[in-house]
Amino acid sequence: xxxAIYHSPFGNMELSYExxxxxxxxxxxxxxxxxxxxxxxxxxxxxxxxxxxGRRKTFDIPCRTHGTAFQEKVWAxxxxxxxxxxxxxxxxxxxxxxPRAGGAAGLANGQNPVALATPC
Length: 120
Hints:
By secondary structure, the protein is an alpha+beta fold. Helix content is 32%, strand content 18%.
């Protein structure tokens, strides 16, 4: 796993990635150091620049999250929601054929390691 630091308008963000995709994108803790960005990190940084400049609404960078089977199912369902639209946790659970799992879907949503790339 590699880590690079992206300087966003809201503070430094830590981008963790491996071959094949971004693992996490979160606000960096004070003093976090990263490697010089290359490859996937450069692509992610370009897309983040475009996003913060208002020229991009969705991300094309591949994500390789590592959650439980249920979390992965929630995160995959969320990626099908068009940019600018919202769904309740109950609606998200129904999208996964688990209409009674709204609370669990909400908890899984809160654990999203790439929240900016796949919005909540």
